[in-house]
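Hey, can you fold this one?
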Amino acid sequence: MKSKLITGLSLLGLIFIFTLQNATIVDIKFLFWTFSMSRALMIFLVLAVGVLLGLFLASMLMDARDDDEDDLEE
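Sure. Predicted structure:
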């Protein structure tokens, strides 16, 4: 329990330091849109999209494998 608390607080501290060091506002241009946001927020959003996309694709692959196994059993 104590090690989880220490690990969690350490990660929170690292995230805080990362956010402070990347607080610069950057312009993101995509096609004809332009967004302004902090660099740290942009990195977290890109990470979140990547994680969600990875989970979605892994789920799709697992479903495809399950369907193939069901076909082989019949």
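The chain has a mean pLDDT of 84. Let me know if you want another pass with a different chain boundary.
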